[in-house]
Amino acid sequence: MIKQHEIKLANQHRVGVVWFTGLSGSGKTTISLRVERLLIDRGYRCVVLDGDMLRAGLNSDLGYTEADRTENLRRTAEVTAMFLDVGFIVLVPMITPTEAMRALIRMRFDEQSYAEVYVRCSLDTCEQRDPKGLYRKARKGIIRDFTGIDGRYEPPPQPELTLDTEHRSVGQCAQQLVEFIDRKYSIHQKEQEIQ
Prior knowledge:
The protein is α/β, with parallel strands linked by helices. It has helices spanning 4-11, 28-41, 51-56, 66-85, 99-108, 123-129, 134-139, 170-185, 187-194, and strands at 16-21, 46-48, 89-93, 114-120, 161-164. Strands 2-3-1-4-5 form a 5-stranded parallel β-sheet, sandwiched between helices.
């Protein structure tokens, strides 16, 4: 069986989970896809596990009750762990609305590999963007328990990184995250810190 240190040396980076949290429309998926491209161009093995993509397949049997959301996150964390085992940095853009849910996710991974990123954007701005028309449907009562409308969202008190998409561009936020990932996961960065 291949050992984690062998994968790390082959990749030239450590494995990692970057778990995005934020309201729908805050820019989680947009930033993660931009960062995935930037990281791959820099030689990182990287993948995005998008919540909508997973709900269309693996988690298509789940609704939006608190129990279903928790199971959705649990399954996603298990898939994420599989990617870690084969040497990836995994970007996971999911609303993950409560601190209790995020604590369960955090417990699944070791501290060195895990980072929580809060994509901060006001509800008003997210509603104005509304790229999928979900806020309009929630306001009309077509969608129930929608986060930020009749479903709660608890901002994380101490994320490893906050990206302010209300006041900074996607490009600026993506660059901020790439720099963070370089500091946290790059072998070369760790070697420079030791010297």
